[in-house]
Write a structure and sequence with these properties.
The protein has 100 residues and is of the alpha+beta class. It has 1 helix and 2 strands, in the order ββα. The chain has a domain of 67 residues: Rossmann fold, CATH 3.40.50.
Amino acid sequence: MDSSEARLGIDYTVSRTEDKKVLLQKSATFSQKFDNVSAELFASAMSAAAFKFVEELKSELLILRAGELKNAKKKADIAASPGEERCGNEKPETGNTDKR
C-alpha cells in the first residue's frame, strides 16, 4: 500500500485593526497522511491538514483575545483610579485644606 502525505504550509500575521499592531506572526506546516494515491484522498487529507490549522489558529486567537481583554481591563482600572498616577508637578494632599 502506498502512503502519501498532504502538507499545508502557511505564513500568517494577526494584527489589531485599530493601530495595526502585530499580535502574532507565524509560519507553520500541517500535514495529514493518506493511503492510495488519488485526487479524492489527497483533497481529503489536505482538508484534514487545513482543519488542524483552523483549530490551532482558533486556540491562538482565544489566547490573544484573553490577553487583549486583560490589557483593556488594566487600562480601564488605571483610568478609574484617579490620583494613582501623578505628573510629578502635583503635591499630594495632606488632608488639611484650611487656608487661613
